[in-house]
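Cont'd.
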Amino acid sequence: MSLAVLVSGTGSILDAMVEAGLPVDLVVSDRPCTAVSRAAGHDVETIVVHRSSFGDDFDRDGYSALLADRLSERSVTLVAMAGFGTILSRPFHDRFAGRVLNTHPALLPAFPGWHGVRDALAAGVDVTGCTVHQATLEVDVGPILAQEEVVVRPDDDETSLHERIKVVERRLYVDTLWAVLDGVIPLQPTPGGAAL
Ligand code: GRF
């Protein structure tokens, strides 16, 4: 299996994956970002497929198709999104159906979307957490592979809570990826194609 990690942010989860010895073959970003510079410190091929080249209206299907091509050219078979900032559409998910993983900083199905940490805080929950799941065309609803709770502290703001969640994500995502690679956690078939 050939593993690609998709990033857009700080790349701390990517770092955790590489440091844990996961066989990351390719790092892909959709924009210049800290994760790309951090990836340069690892011995892993890194490419930027610029979303900014796809117009002010953002041609999502065009971008998704190009990204799928870039991964296919490199024989990627498993995709791990780790803070990737572009929602990918059908041309990508059709190609990689059942083989795309994501981590989300909330206990799905609670608080999907871009602001999972902020929304959990605003809802006043005592406990939130993170979810590793298979990504599908519909955002944050794919089969759940692993979850872990994080207690909300009375003095938490979005940054402090997100940082504590990310500490858990770095471990949970790594453990889940190992389990998937070892066949301990089977991937579910998802719409658009078969699982591994
Ligand atoms: C994680 O909390 C992930 O769930 C969210 O973005 C964050 C990525 O963190 N989608 P980093 O860029 O790996 O530090």
